[in-house]
């Protein structure tokens, strides 16, 4: 099983973004979680293609693009052209989720689907064969620095059981409110990709990453 810490640059200092990404890379972090928000699917607006294009020039990390965007199928090719290595779309944001999955697959990058805390696993379980990763949101999407919603742990467990029972090759990512204690809870439930924003970027980046990576190995 592959385990990855996926720092979310939503909590980065954008004045020093390149430098902070280099620090992550030097610490051996392989994944970079990139939160795109459109002010429609979620209340806030973050950043988009020009930022991704710029950091792509300097970084070899795996760019894990989380689209919190209505009708994301409109932008798949754009984000691939900017340098995305995987694209995660929200089940709630697509009229035709199967078609959107196909578009990402055809564009040649990894496919992720995400569900908000209130969306049941049942809504996406029929699509597990077609995706590489499921992102179980553990806060309401839209903002960093929120508290982990404990009820979401059961969803991770339920998803993990289906994946194991059906012998599928699907990774489980959690996103929102991940810290020392919630990362343990989520991993025990079956998550293997951990997104963390404020927990990684608040305070000393280098020592935070070292501590989290050490904890992930325990
Ligand atoms: C929230 C984003 C998250 C966010 C997590 O909508 O999808 O990736 O950056 O931030 P923390 O780790 O601070 O909860
Ligand atoms: Zn995210």
From TrEMBL:
The protein's annotated pathway: Carbohydrate degradation
Catalytic activity: D-ribulose 5-phosphate = D-xylulose 5-phosphate
Binding site for a divalent metal cation: 33, 35, 66, 175
Entry keyword annotation includes Metal-binding: yes
Active site annotation, chain numbering: 35, 175
Gene Ontology molecular function: D-ribulose-phosphate 3-epimerase activity
Note describing how the cofactor binds: Binds 1 divalent metal cation per subunit.
EC number(s) on file: 5.1.3.1
UniProt binding sites for substrate: 8, 66, 142-145, 175-177, 197-198
Cofactor(s) recorded in Swiss-Prot or TrEMBL: Fe(2+); Mn(2+); Co(2+); a divalent metal cation
UniProtKB keywords: Carbohydrate metabolism, Isomerase, Metal-binding
First-tier enzyme category under EC: isomerase
UniProt-listed InterPro entries: Aldolase_TIM, Ribul_P_3_epim, Ribul_P_3_epim-like, RibuloseP-bd_barrel
Short name of any one Pfam family annotated for the protein: Ribul_P_3_epim
NCBIfam families, sorted: PRK05581.1-4, rpe
Function: Catalyzes the reversible epimerization of D-ribulose 5-phosphate to D-xylulose 5-phosphate.
Protein's UniProt name: Ribulose-phosphate 3-epimerase
Species, as recorded: Blautia intestinihominis
Lineage summary: Bacteria, Bacillati, Bacillota, Clostridia, Lachnospirales
């Amino acid at each position: 099983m592959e385990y990855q810490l996926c720092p979310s640059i939503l909590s980065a200092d954008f004045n020093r973004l390149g430098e902070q990404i280099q620090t992550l890379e030097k610490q051996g972090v392989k994944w970079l979680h990139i939160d795109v928000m459109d002010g429609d699917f979620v209340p806030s607006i973050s950043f988009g293609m020009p930022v991704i294009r710029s950091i792509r020039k300097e970084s070899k990390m795996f760019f894990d693009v989380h689209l919190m965007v209505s009708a994301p199928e409109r932008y798949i090719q754009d984000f691939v052209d900017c340098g995305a290595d995987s694209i995660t779309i929200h089940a709630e944001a697509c009229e035709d989720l199967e078609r959107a999955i196909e578009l990402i697959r055809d564009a040649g990058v990894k496919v992720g689907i995400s569900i908000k805390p209130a969306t049941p696993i049942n809504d996406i379980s029929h699509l597990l064969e077609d995706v590489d990763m499921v992102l179980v949101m553990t806060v309401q999407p839209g903002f960093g620095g929120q508290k982990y919603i404990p009820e979401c742990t059961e969803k991770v467990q339920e998803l993990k059981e289906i994946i194991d029972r059906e012998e599928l090759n699907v990774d489980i990512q959690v996103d929102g409110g991940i810290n020392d204690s919630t990362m343990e809870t989520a991993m025990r439930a079956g998550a293997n990709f951990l997104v963390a924003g404020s927990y990684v970027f608040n305070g000393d980046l280098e020592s935070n990453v070292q501590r989290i990576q050490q904890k992930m190995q325990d």
